[in-house]
Amino acid sequence: MAIDTPAKIVILGAGPIGLEAALYARFLGYDVAVFEAGELAASVRRWGHVRMFTPFGMNRSPLGLAAIQAQDESYRPPADDELLAGRQWIDRYLAPLSQTDLLAEHIQTQTLVVAIGKEELLKGDMPGNDGSEDGADRGDWSFRILVRNADGEERVELADAVIDATGVFAGGANYLGHGGIPAVGELAAADLIDTRLPDILGKDRQHFAGKHTLLVGGGHSAATNAVALAQLAREASGTRVTWITRREGPAGAGGPIALIAGDRLPERAALARHANDLTRIGLAGQLQEASNGNHQAATGSVTYWPATVVEKVTGKVRSTADHEFTVELSGRHAGTYQFDRVLANTGFRPSNWIIEELQIHRCYATDGPMKLAAALLGQQSADCLDQTTCGPKTLLNPEPNYYILGAKSYGRRSNFLLSVGLEQIREVFTIIGDRETLNLYDNVKLSR
Ligand SMILES: Cc1cc2nc3c(=O)[nH]c(=O)nc-3n(C[C@H](O)[C@H](O)[C@H](O)COP(=O)(O)OP(=O)(O)OC[C@H]3O[C@@H](n4cnc5c(N)ncnc54)[C@H](O)[C@@H]3O)c2cc1C
Known about the structure:
By secondary structure, this protein is of the alpha/beta class. 24% of the residues lie in helices and 21% in strands. The chain contains 11 helices and 18 strands. The chain has helices at residues 16-27, 42-46, 62-71, 86-98, 101-104, 186-189, 205-208, 220-235, 266-284, 370-376, 418-432; strands spanning 8-12, 31-35, 107-108, 111-118, 143-149, 154-159, 161-164, 194-195, 212-216, 240-244, 288-289, 294-297, 302-305, 308-319, 322-331, 335-339, 341-344, 402-404. The strands form 5 sheets. Strands 3-2-1-7-18 form a 5-stranded parallel β-sheet, covered by helices on one side. Helix 1 (16-27) runs parallel beside helix 11 and helix 8 (220-235) crosses helix 9. Bound molecules: flavin-adenine dinucleotide (FAD). Residues 12-18, 35-38, 41-44, 47, 50, 52-54, 59, 112-113, 165-167, 169-170, 197, 351, 354, 406-407, 416-418, 421 line the site of flavin-adenine dinucleotide.
């Protein structure tokens, strides 16, 4: 639904997509406020030590570069083909972007969005109107946004349009148990279970050194952790990993991680191969690690158990830094085992509680917004690089002027790419600005 400037657009989340969306809106002359629960790019900071698999050129917009360069002539961006770690991406691009005149005064960090509704309207009022008809609809009322700062003080902010770029981490990790529900005891042990990508070879080293870790998951996060733990095992004796996946590894992969034929992202391909090789080394116990040319014995530090699921988990605190887990597994390697660490890389879900009072139609399978989710069902390639955006109309929700972009727009699907998010931003502003051909990314000047 078209909104004339200088209307107010509130953006939820100062991750990469929230920042880029805010910049685009500011270039168009909208009044913008960005609310971020933590620090700038809080989610990316959590995996800041990990190298990205897409080159910098895919992770930045021409508008972003132009904004930084317009302010600081000495700014030298990373080369477009450079593979940055998350932390470098923040330091060399996202942070300078957030400090440009266009954005600096418009970002409020440590400001949690608690809930969103509409002035005067309840969720059930005026249903089924997506703003495409003439006459009054829910879009005539402002959004009412409850935010809370770091001191716990709450206030209400109003907005004409909202872009929700809160990502998927706030909703929490998917559960370990059968059918995606918690394993017996998992909720009670939740505080002791590690998730995400700890800095295993850096600041979290002592947490894993000399320990036996149960690693759960079959995606690239699990692969990254397996490779780091195997490296730690070479450096710190007694370090071991038992890696389980719900299903068998994909046919022909030689391990848990799917290989993409002719992968155009060498970093991703190398990670998958390395992780799969480790599981074969683990099985044989004494094989040499051929894939990366490291011929030191990797004497079975990684044991891989496919088709194995956590049935029950009990966590005990031995001391502040030391835990002990008793884990009952079912499936191929059924039995009861002891571990020092449980590291769950089972994926994440978006936090939809903030939109409970709005008319957002969510997909029953992915939890993503329905129109986009339905369109994505048609994209079945195993390679996220093959994705395209699905058109501006798929970004519309039954709630007029509420748009979900970025990783959250994919719900529980894990194949979102930043380059897709940038394209979503261009598309959403063709709706908000009511100009089908609007494309600031094409018309940008790169110098003052
Ligand atoms: C290890 C790793 C490597 C990756 N490498 C690549 C890569 O090479 N290429 C690629 O394309 N993608 C990569 N990704 C994925 C990419 O990082 C994410 O898709 C991207 O961060 C999504 O950006 P976003 O802005 O949508 O969400 P996020 O980065 O998750 O940002 C969301 C922000 O919203 C904030 N927030 C959440 N809830 C609230 C709330 N209620 N109120 C206020 N603020 C809130 C969060 O604190 C966060 O700062 C990688 C991911 C990981 C984990």
